[in-house]
């Protein structure tokens, strides 16, 4: 039997949150609630639905390959940033099958066997998976006070370092690093290292000290800013995201990007989503109200700790005598799916009011409250 590359054997396959249908089928539960994958509980804009309906009413469009360059979606993104006073060109944007694919493309572009990438732990597990898949070395730096230890990450930089990954806000903690920290970090970082800023939860951030990473892009830094339509825009099933970087970086990544990597439905849906600012505002308002409710209820549980979040999920540290598997299994039987993210930690997506209430009731039941 043919054997894989030695470093492929080192990769732990990604395990997604359990699907609702699977839980309902396995446990015989109806109307299960999924709060495991940080999905948007409201769903996409009605304008997205209309755009998709219009597209599929023309069968020949489904028979054709997608717009390979993503021309119209890139136009919409340029318009969005122009409203914020930022001039972008198509050459500074790359589209991906979710921002996940863009992580992989960047790694395949800049990492080879023996090259190093620095990242936080815990953070998004795909960073290490992508690096190891290329024969690279993933150097993980523990968080400090639940946030990226930027100084510690700098200390791990060597002449073999090609990429530094920073998730801001971080997944799974929901925490951010601030403007002043980033200014110092960028100034101290040696040249010829690509900073990948994963801003999947950018739209949810309310903290005024959140860094404007486009500033570094405009200063011609080697930075790739990743954003997605999977979270606040509610298009997770369509897999569409984008990256912003200077032309030279995008040009090199496009050598690796597969043709037609983003499908027609996803492109049209994302374009429509960008045009409905009111729906996005509604999504964010519902998230803030849900966050406030969960804070209030979790504050009543003295045996646990949670981290204030800048995202659509909350990171909870469980009591000393409790494991995340115990909580996960119990909540599953109650029809609530959460995400274990450590031996004693769970991550809970902020849902609709009734979903948040169901989680709190089931969680308190487990804790005996």
UniProtKB/TrEMBL annotation:
Keywords: Amino-acid biosynthesis, Aminotransferase, Histidine biosynthesis, Pyridoxal phosphate, Transferase. Its EC number is 2.6.1.9. PROSITE patterns: AA_TRANSFER_CLASS_2. Gene3D superfamilies: Aspartate Aminotransferase, domain 1, Type I PLP-dependent aspartate aminotransferase-like (Major domain). It comes from the Bacteria. It catalyses: L-histidinol phosphate + 2-oxoglutarate = 3-(imidazol-4-yl)-2-oxopropyl phosphate + L-glutamate. InterPro entries: Aminotrans_II_pyridoxalP_BS (IPR001917), Aminotransferase_I/II_large (IPR004839), HisP_aminotrans (IPR005861), HistidinolP_aminotransfase (IPR050106), PyrdxlP-dep_Trfase (IPR015424), PyrdxlP-dep_Trfase_major (IPR015421), PyrdxlP-dep_Trfase_small (IPR015422). The keyword Transferase applies. The modification N6-(pyridoxal phosphate)lysine is found at residue 231. Residues 31-362 form the Aminotransferase class I/classII large domain. Pfam families: Aminotran_1_2. The keyword Metal-binding does not apply. One of its GO terms (biological process) is L-histidine biosynthetic process. Its cofactor is pyridoxal 5'-phosphate. GO terms for molecular function: histidinol-phosphate transaminase activity; pyridoxal phosphate binding. Pathway: Amino-acid biosynthesis; L-histidine biosynthesis; L-histidine from 5-phospho-alpha-D-ribose 1-diphosphate: step 7/9. Belongs to the class-II pyridoxal-phosphate-dependent aminotransferase family. Histidinol-phosphate aminotransferase subfamily. Homodimer. This is Histidinol-phosphate aminotransferase. It comes from Thermodesulfovibrio yellowstonii.
């Amino acid at each position: 039997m043919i054997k894989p590359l030695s470093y492929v054997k080192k990769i732990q396959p990604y395990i997604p949150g359990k699907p609702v249908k699977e839980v309902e089928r396995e446990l015989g539960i109806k109307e299960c609630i999924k709060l495991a994958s940080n999905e948007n509980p409201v769903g996409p804009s009605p304008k997205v639905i209309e755009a998709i309906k219009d597209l599929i009413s023309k069968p020949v469009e489904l028979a054709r390959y997608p717009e390979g360059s993503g021309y119209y979606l890139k136009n919409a993104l340029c318009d969005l940033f122009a409203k914020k006073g930022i001039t972008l060109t198509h050459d500074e944007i790359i589209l991906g099958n979710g921002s996940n694919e863009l992580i992989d493309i960047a790694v395949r572009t800049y990492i080879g066997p023996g090259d190093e990438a620095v990242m936080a732990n815990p953070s998004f597990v795909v960073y290490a998976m992508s690096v190891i898949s290329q024969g690279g070395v993933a150097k993980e730096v523990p968080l400090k006070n639940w946030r990226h230890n930027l100084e510690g990450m700098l200390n791990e930089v060597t002449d073999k370092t090609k990429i530094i990954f920073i998730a801001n806000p971080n997944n799974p903690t929901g925490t951010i690093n601030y403007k002043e920290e980033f200014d110092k970090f960028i100034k101290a970082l040696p040249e010829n290292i690509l900073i990948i800023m994963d801003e999947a939860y950018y739209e949810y951030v309310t903290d005024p000290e959140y860094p404007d990473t486009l500033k570094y892009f405009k200063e011609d830094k080697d930075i790739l800013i990743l954003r997605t339509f999977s979270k606040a825009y509610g298009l997770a099933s369509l897999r569409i995201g984008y990256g912003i970087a200077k032309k030279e970086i995008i040009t090199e990544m496009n050598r690796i990007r597969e043709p037609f990597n983003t499908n027609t439905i996803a492109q049209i849906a994302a374009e429509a989503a960008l045009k409905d600012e009111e729906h996005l505002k509604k999504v964010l308002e519902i998230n803030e109200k849900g966050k406030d409710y969960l804070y209030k209820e979790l504050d009543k549980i003295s045996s646990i700790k949670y981290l204030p979040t800048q995202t659509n999920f909350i990171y909870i540290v469980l009591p000393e005598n409790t494991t995340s598997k115990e909580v996960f299994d119990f909540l599953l039987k109650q029809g609530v799916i959460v995400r274990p993210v450590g031996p004693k930690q769970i991550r809970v997506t902020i849902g609709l009011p009734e979903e948040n209430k169901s989680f709190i009731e089931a969680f308190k039941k487990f804790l005996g409250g």
